[in-house]
Amino acid sequence: MELGIKEINKKVSQECLFIAELKRELARVIVGQEESLDRILTGLLANGHILLEGVPGLAKTLIIKTLAQAIDADFSRIQFTPDLLPADLTGTLIFNPKDSEFSVRKGPVFSNLVLADEINRAPAKVQSALLEAMQERHVTIGNTTYPLPELFLVLATQNPIEQEGTYPLPEAQIDRFMLKIKVSYPSKAEEKAILERMASGHCPLANKVADPKQILHARQVASEIYIDEKIKNYIVDLVCATRDPEGHKLGSVKHLISYGASPRATIYLAQAAKAYAFLNGRGYVTPEDIKSIGVDVLRHRILVSYEAEAENITPENLIQTLFETIEVP
After folding, report:
1. Is the pLDDT of residue 288 over 90?
2. Beta strand segments in the chain, E
3. Sequence-distant (≥ 6) Cβ neighbours of residue 134 within 8 angstroms
4. Which of 12, 58, 124, 274 could form a disulfide with 54 if both were Cys (CB 3.0 to 4.6 A apart)?
5. What 8-state DSSP symbol labels residue 284?
6. What pLDDT does 81 receive?
7. Are the CB atoms for 241 and 316 separated by under 8 Å?
8. 153-158, strands of its sheet edge to edge
9. Do the Cβ atoms of 69 and 208 come closer than 8 Å?
10. What does residue 105 show for φ and ψ, rounded to 5 degrees?
11. What CA–CA distance (Å, rounded) separates 98 from 232?
12. What string of DSSP letters covers 191-209?
């Protein structure tokens, strides 16, 4: 097994070389946001969709657009509005009177990177159409089912402060997203850099440094990264502790959790940890990888109780308690 780990480690260290160049290219356009970029690259390599939460103007759209340019991928942006229809996403049949036949017009969901801007502004029908495409990786138009591109990633954004005229995503649908990333305000120095870079009116464009085939190959390599049995047990302990706090020496927080994480959390935590290890040039997963990516995988899967809300205790606070209590292998 040791020889196997060495081989994987060598393979990863060779295959991940383009990541540093990709990060440099993204940093040429995006000021700061290193943590958000790391998480987005993790989702890209782990084949998991991402929910971005942040107030307007934090470059969420620019990040996705720049990433698409850097990896030479098809990009589409869908502005979700209350009058949007499922066909506006997936496509529809168009009648051609010339030959009296219907032809298919595919919607913007048939892209490599799809930005669903303000997903909570669209009604449930539209949200479910997108989430079905995310889950099934295909779309049915008329009587025919069309596969989505092999490299297919949905990045949905939502505004945490404005709830008027929104349709909040049900918890079962939020669970489809591998990661929920909270995009924060830039620091004072970053704000000054943004001013100097963007105030001229000429936003820099990213150069192509990779392509979809390279990303798909990197995904394959990342999926082979070694996870020790003890790390697997650690992941299972963390997720199960959200459902049965008392059984994991966390009786003091039992009243603060209404519902724990689903089995998707276990799968996604392992996949995301592998991708995160790949980004760091390692062929094996460490407990630190789990801790680094764990908050983004778990924060939208733990429902806090009314008591927790009354005490201003967030899912992030509870996850931190989990990491401090569950024994690290």
Report:
1. yes
2. 50-53, 75-79, 91-96, 101-106, 113-117, 138-141, 144-147, 153-158, 179-182, 257-259, 303-304
3. 49, 154, 176
4. 58
5. B
6. 87
7. no
8. 75-79, 113-117, 153-158, 50-53, 179-182
9. yes
10. -115, 110
11. 61
12. HHHHHHHHTTS----PPP-
Residue with tokens 């219907």: 102
Which position has the higher pLDDT, 40 or 193?
Answer: 40
- Tokens coding 140: 């049915």
Nearest to 308 by CA among 255, 259, 261: 255
74 CB neighbour count, 10 Å cutoff:
15
The single-letter code of the amino acid at 219 is R
Distance CA 9, CA 15 (A): 10
Look up tokens 């931190």; give the residue: 320
Judge contact between 174 and 51, C-beta under 8 A. yes
User: DSSP assignment of 264-282, as one string?
Assistant: HHHHHHHHHHHHHHHHTT-
Token couple for 176: 């489809």
155-173 burial: b if 16+ Cβ within 10 Å, else e: bbbbbeeeeeebbebeeeb
pLDDT per residue as tens digits for the range 191-206: 888 888 777 777 778 8
pTM (global) more than 0.90: no
Q: Which domains does the chain have, with CATH numbers?
A: 2-218 (3.40.50.300), 226-325 (1.10.8.80)
| Structure tokens given for 177 | 């997203």
- Concatenate the DSSP letters of all residues of 69-85 into one string: HHTT--EEEEE--TT--
H/E stretch holding 289: helix 287-298
CA gap 37, 219 in Å, rounded: 17
Sequence-separated (6 or more) residues with CB below 8 Å from residue 235? 266, 269, 270, 273, 290
Please name the residues in contact with 202: beta carbons below 8 A apart, sequence gap of 6 or more. none
CA angle 253, 263, 80 (to 5 degrees): 95
- Residues forming a β-bridge with 50: 155, 179
